[in-house]
From TrEMBL:
UniProt protein name: ERAD-associated E3 ubiquitin-protein ligase component HRD3
GO function term, MF aspect, one: ubiquitin-protein transferase activity
Keywords on record: Membrane, Signal, Transmembrane, Transmembrane helix
UniProt source species: Kazachstania africana (strain ATCC 22294 / BCRC 22015 / CBS 2517 / CECT 1963 / NBRC 1671 / NRRL Y-8276)
Gene designation: KAFR0L01450
BP GO terms, sorted: negative regulation of protein autoubiquitination; retrograde protein transport, ER to cytosol
């Protein structure tokens, strides 16, 4: 019996292992079980709200090695057992069973950091490519993604291959990807990797536009109540002061949904009340006020605060999603509390109370956050809003817009609607909807004598009202007024298509979310997709993530050549889409790479579009002979030209021109001995307008730098192997006009310090000389005043006895008048 029992035992063992192998199957079911309990990623819009002070980091430098060590740390650390288990199952499913779903999920893990995985472009591309093969190139989303990968090379991960990219874009477009169509249309529009072809571009853009219009908007949306969307189409540098820093850019800031700042008391809207005779003040508390609720002291500002709180809730800010219901409840409570006190309100309070009523009416009108619109309540509030403000001032209320819509679409009283529209057409809050409705009324009923539909629609389109852009594009396409132009029409459709972010570019929102979570590389990928689709702001954001121009004379970013080239490409594409500042920055990146000729020609293109910074840079290039032969005359001409455009740089320009004169004088004296290429070729300091201004900034704020760095370093606690510089800290929505907290390469001694801020020894000499001339003339002036001397410079007497109101003149006219005199004296 023994052998038999052994035999049975063995055979059952063999059978069981054999059976195990048989029944061991694709673990996909287990995977779905695991993933259903893991969150794909935290919601940053909740996380940051808790933290109060909202910020995101954009590292300046990029090291491949540091990314790799982050990746390796993930697998070695014991903190992610679930993820590693999941990964093993997924690879088993993908590799042994060619499971497309598992392969797709793997690509999400490394491309989008789902389930907290580290970003890895190599693996992302590998699995995405495999997924596309497994699905025989039929999934439009992933085909589009692979196209983007080939088009950009994933910043050095795979070879850049425009031909392959084009192939994938076309495949994706055929499979139905609107994004791919948009990207192709953009390429044809600008002639990127394809011959420029406006006809093709127009066809593609129109197709996308028509599909959006047909599938996304009901007639009611389109005509009456166009849906509101929380846009994340912004340029990242605009969260600080724009690409070029405060006051220097020629592009307006894109960050329109920041948390509202409380208004400036002197703002024109407010002072226009009562014919501008009234001075409105915050905080002058009148205690006899009967309606004070809660804090007596704050009753004056309370309505202002309430309105802006409600407004921020209504529109949503970049870090907090909108909550219309909260807004409505707050406004309703306000109305209940304040309504009986309208008679005793002063102008400021009426102004903001009316705005509260208007917003509440608007919420009921649109039905946002409600089961359905309540037009009866809306009309009630809107009428009250108009009554409150127009009873005491000549201002018009925004409520006229919604009242007009009510009259037009609810009561069908077109005369009354036109009346309301006329009152609101000039308002700043008119986003073009008024002209759009007037144009409609006009074409339906010419007897109203409203005006010209074409002109009205054009105005609505210029103001950016989205349906108007589409209708105007349709109109130009028909060749009305003989103004048919393929390029213009394609451009209009492009604008319209880009406006629907929820279909065309939900990744703009994701990109911002990833930034808030600190996932810069994932954010970069999301912005890259939008850049390929032709979004100008995304191009700037993507380029900015790869290459930030130091604005305070720090060292330029350390990063790979592929990233620098990609950054240049995107800055240049943004420049071609009329972002002049981006052109200057593209020049700066070339400058940093030592390609002075290319930098020079970029500056030249930007200067043709009146960029003050570019003009200054041209002067600088001529002064030092960078990319062009040295030419002081041309340099001076460019410096002087800066003044023609912007007088703010008076001192900086005058000092530079003075320095130039001294330098040419010096060279003239020293003859050939003087080394005219005094510039230190290793110095990477970038030419900046207001260099002088920056130097003073840096000296004044040096103390702060240190402490801020320390704080930042503490906060990061980054313990990587590689020396990482403190990242830019962008504090969103706190009004902090942050100095970019970068390392100050602490240099010993004055010479080192001066070098670090971009001064060369000859500059120092000339500056000292200027200071000497200043003090000399000042002393002479004082002496002359005391002793009654009769001093003349260039034949112009500066004896103050000749002038009666001298003390004032001396103060004001010091730079403007006598400074020039001294220049000529030299
Ligand atoms: C990505 O993954 C591959 C393969 O595991 C690895 O060799 C590479 O170092 C990773 N790259 C980065 C940047 O982490
Ligand atoms: C993959 O997912 C799709 C839809 O999500 C599903 O229809 C399909 O059955 C899945 N395939 C496998 C092998 O589980
Ligand atoms: C885009 O279309 C969707 C419908 O698919 C719509 O819900 C959304 O409001 C539109 N977005 C914008 C910004 O108009
Ligand atoms: C339209 O409204 C005006 C007042 O705004 C009113 O005088 C007129 O009677 C209304 N017309 C109709 C047809 O209801
Ligand atoms: C001038 O300076 C440059 C760089 O500093 C140097 O290469 C060159 O030899 C110098 N020329 C003379 C004449 O000293």
């Amino acid at each position: 019996m023994k052998p038999l029992s052994y035999f049975l035992l063995y055979s059952s063992l063999i059978y069981s292992t054999f059976a195990k192998k048989e029944t061991r199957e694709d673990p996909w079911n287990e995977i779905t079980k695991i993933t259903s309990s893991l969150p794909i990623r935290p919601n940053p819009f909740e996380v940051t709200e808790l933290q109060g002070d909202i910020s995101f980091y954009i590292p300046i430098d990029y090291f491949e090695e540091s990314e790799e060590s982050k990746f390796n740390d993930f697998w070695l650390s014991k903190s992610y057992p679930n993820q590693i288990y999941l990964y093993n199952l997924l690879t088993e499913s993908s590799e042994n069973y060619n499971n497309a779903n598992a392969t797709f999920m793997l690509s999400r893990l490394f491309l989008y950091q789902h389930y907290n995985f580290p970003h890895n472009k190599t693996l992302a591309h590998h699995y995405l490519n495999k997924y596309n093969e497994l699905t025989s190139y039929s999934d439009p989303t992933t085909l589009f993604e692979e196209a983007v990968m080939h088009s950009t090379g994933l910043f050095g991960t795979i070879p850049v291959d425009p031909a392959k990219a084009l192939l994938y874009y076309e495949r994706a477009a055929r499979a139905g990807s609107l994004q791919a169509k948009q990207a192709l249309a953009y390429k044809y529009f600008n002639g990127i990797n394809v011959p420029r072809d406006f006809d093709k571009s127009l066809v593609l853009y129109r197709e996308v536009a028509e599909s959006i219009k047909k599938n996304s908007y009901s007639d009611y949306d389109w005509n009456v109540n166009f849906p509101y969307f929380e846009s994340y189409n912004v340029r990242l540098p605009d969260f600080e002061d724009g690409l070029l820093g405060p006051g220097l850019g020629s592009t307006s800031l894109s960050t329109v949904r920041k948390k509202s700042a409380r208004p400036d008391i002197t703002s024109s809207v407010l002072t226009k009340m009562n014919g501008g005779t009234i001075i409105l003040q915050f905080g002058n508390v009148d205690n006899s006020n009967a309606f004070a609720i809660g804090d007596n002291d704050e009753s004056e500002d309370q309505l202002v605060d309430i309105f802006y709180t409600a407004w921020d809730e209504y529109k949503g800010t970049y870090t907090k999603k909108r909550d219309v219901e909260k807004s409505r409840l707050l406004l309703e409570a306000t109305v209940t509390q304040y309504d009986k006190d309208v008679i005793i309100m002063d102008n400021l309070q009426r102004y903001f109370y009316s705005k509260c009523l208007d917003l509440l009416g608007h919420i009921y009108f649109t039905g946002d956050g409600l089961p359905e619109p309540d037009l009866y309540a809306a009309e009630n509030y809107l009428k009250k809003a108009i009554l409150v403000i127009e009873g005491s001032s000549r201002l018009h209320s925004r409520a006229h817009i919604d009242m007009g819509l009510l009259q037009q679409y609810k009561y069908h009283n077109e005369t009354s609607a036109v009346e309301h529209y006329r009152k609101s057409i000039e308002l700043r809050s008119n986003n073009g909807i008024v002209e759009y409705q007037l144009a409609k009324l006009n074409s339906r009923n010419p007897s109203l004598h409203i005006g010209d539909s074409f002109t009205l629609l054009q105005a609505a389109c210029t103001k950016g009202f989205i349906p108007a852009i589409y209708e105007f594009a349709k109109m130009t396409e028909k060749g009305l007024k003989n103004r048919y132009n393929c390029e213009d029409t394609a451009y209009l459709f492009k604008l319209f298509v880009e406006e629907n972010e929820s279909i065309m570019a939900p990744h703009l929102t994701n990109a911002f979310a990833e930034l808030l979570l600190g996932n810069t590389e994932t954010a970069l990928w999301e912005y890259t997709k939008a850049s390929e689709q032709g979004y100008e702001m995304a191009q700037v954001s993507a380029a900015y993530l790869m290459y930030q121009i130091p604005t305070k004379l720090d060292e330029p970013p350390l990063t790979t050549d592929e990233r620098k080239d990609m950054a240049i490409t995107y800055y240049m594409r943004a420049f071609k889409q009329n972002n002049v500042d981006a052109g200057v920055i593209a020049g700066d990146v070339y400058y940093d790479k030592g390609q002075y000729e290319k930098a020079f020609s970029m500056y030249q293109s930007a200067a043709l579009k009146y960029s003050v910074q570019a003009i200054w840079n041209l002067g600088y290039m001529y002064e030092y002979g960078l990319g062009v032969p040295m030419d002081f005359h041309l340099a001076k001409r460019y410096y002087d030209q800066v003044l023609e455009f912007n007088h703010k740089f008076y001192l900086g320009v005058k000092l530079s021109v003075l320095k130039l004169r001294i330098k040419s004088f010096w060279i003239w004296i020293m003859g050939n001995q003087a080394n005219t290429t005094i510039i230190n070729p290793n110095s990477k300091s970038l030419p900046l307008v207001g260099r002088i201004k920056n130097i003073f900034d840096k000296i004044v704020h040096r103390g702060e730098y240190g402490s801020k760095n320390a704080k930042d370093a503490q906060k990061d606690g980054s313990g990587t192997l590689f020396e990482e510089r403190n990242p830019h800290k962008t504090v969103v929505q706190s009004g902090f006009d942050g100095f970019n907290a970068r390392t100050n390469n602490d240099q010993d001694g004055i010479a080192g310090y001066l070098q670090s801020i971009g001064l060369h020894s000859e500059d120092v000499i000339t500056i000292l000389f200027v200071i000497f001339v200043f003090s000399f003339s000042f002393i002479m002036r004082t002496l002359a005043q005391r002793r009654g001397w009769n001093v003349q410079i260039n034949g112009i007497p500066i004896n103050p006895n000749n002038n009666n109101n001298e003390p004032q003149q001396q103060q004001g006219g010091f730079f403007n008048g006598n400074f020039d005199v001294q220049i000529f004296a030299i």
